[in-house]
Structure formats: structure tokens, C-alpha cells
Amino acid sequence: MSVQSVQKLPLAKAINESLRKALETDPKVLIMGEDVGKLGGVFRVTDGLQKDFGEERVIDTPLAESGIVGTAIGLALRGYRPVVEIQFDGFVFPAYDQIVTQLAKMHARSLGTIKMPVVIRIPYGGGIGAVEHHSESPEALFAHVAGLKVVSPSSSSDAYWMMQQAIRSDDPVIFFEPKRRYWDKGEVDVEAVPGPLHTARVVREGTDLTLAAYGPMVKVCVEAAAAAAEEGKSLEVLDLRSMSPIDFDTVQTSVEKTGRLVVVHEAPVFYGSGAEIAARMTERCFYHLEAPVLRVGGFHAPYPPARLEEEYLPGLDRVLDAVDRSLAY
Prior knowledge:
Distance between the termini: 45 Å
Strand content: 15-25%
Shape: globular
Oligomer: single chain
Structural class: alpha/beta
């Protein structure tokens, strides 16, 4: 690592720099979406890219998510690597049919002869005080679909490198960007050698209990571990990074060490990603577990108005409550 190669960037800027690098490196990379060009995206994630690479590489599209994804599939068939932005999480559903019946199936349908190197960027989650349809966490819907890779960074460094890896993938990647972390700054080494895209990472070592999270909740879990440490509790924090595939081996190694697991995500607990992790770890670590695997997440209800979202979103207290319940067994 050289000093010159390390920059401290907000997560949104790290994605911007990653997209810029991809556009510079591969002429087949295209960026498409509503307001991604002249405006630079509603969160300014694509700011300046159309100015520098032109309207044929960074394309402002009509407000038609199904058409955007359908066009990206056609471009991928012609050898391009489109990076599609869905402006907000709740806007993805008009394109859901294209994603699950075409994009996810094309590789298998063609017996492996057709690649689908499409990245779909989705700002997701709450915490920004937005109106209806702007604060969803639909990751489990996509992780359930065979043929899709589903990832979410929690740091600026991961945002930069995971985007590079997603664009280079010959399989479609749903790239969930935690919008309330867009302005959190972190160090990015643009000359680093990144680990595999779908490998979980130990963020904080611990011995008493494992907290597993991804995207926006990793920061909350780190804060919970710090608060628990003041009471003499040693919590290990895992950043899962990928919801499909899931790095069960790293989770298992941690749980075999700590004997307890709490899975945390913003999405509703009911049928959430945490359910799959809880079931797998119960199967794999049955004789190591000192307590049932617990889950912390949103409620099984439509996302509430902005004034109530702090009650809806899992925060420090709900995570620590689950930790206490697990340690009480």
C-alpha cells in the first residue's frame, strides 16, 4: 500500500470512482438509468461521468424500469457490460419480471453459451426520511432467485472494489447500495488486491457471540459490539457482504468459536435473509451452539412514514437486547 494510492472517500464517491475506473478500462462498459447523466443521479453517485465519457456511454433513460433492464439484457447479448441504476429500491418492481424471468435465466436457458454481464445498482434501505417506495429492503426477493448474484457493501473500500468485481462478472449482479451510508467516509486503497466478491469478512474479533450483518447494519453491529465491550462482553462482528451466494463457511467458523449467533438486517425478519442463515447454522453448528440463533430486523409491515422509521429500523437497543437474550441461555 502506498500513501498516494489511499484516499478517504464517502461511500457514494467510492462507487463513482469505481464506475469511472470501469469506464476508462473497458469500452464495453455502459451506465444507464434515470437522471444518471446530466444530473449525476439523485444521490450524485454518477456525477461527472457523462461529462467525461459522453452520452453514448452514460445514458439518461426514460422513466421505465422494465425498459431499462430489457435494454441492458439486449446490450449484454451484443457483448456490452451495462451498469443499470434503479433510482430507488421501491422502483425496481416494474423491472422484476425482466430480472427474474430473463436476466437470471438466460445463462441456464442457453446451456451456458450466453453470458449476462449486467450490474443492477439499487440504493436501498431507510434512514433518510424519504416518502413511500423510497426506503425498501427487497434483497431477499432477489437472493431467492437462482442465477442472480446479490451483494451489498458496508464500507467505502468494499464499495469501490465490489463494484469493480461485479462489473467484471459474467453473471448478473444485483448491487444493493446502503443509501444512508452514502456519506460515511472510509479509506480506499485503489491499488489493493481485493478478496473474493462473495467472501464474508471479520470486522471485529470476539469470543462470546457472533453478530452477522451486511450493508447498512454493519455499522450498527460494530457500535453494539463496542457498547457490549464496556460491560465485559466480547462480540465478533461479521460483514457478510454477499446475500447470494452466502459465505456460510466463514459464519460457521465464527459460530464454532463463539457458540452464539445473532443475524441483523434492515429488511423484515419474516422470510428474511437471516432465516436462511439461522437454518444453515443450526444444521452445521448444532453441537456448538449455546443458544438458538436469533434474528433482528424490520417488522412485517409496509415501511412507515419518515417520522416513524426510527421505530421501525433495528437500532443499537434492539441488537443489544438480542445479545442479552442469547447470552442469557
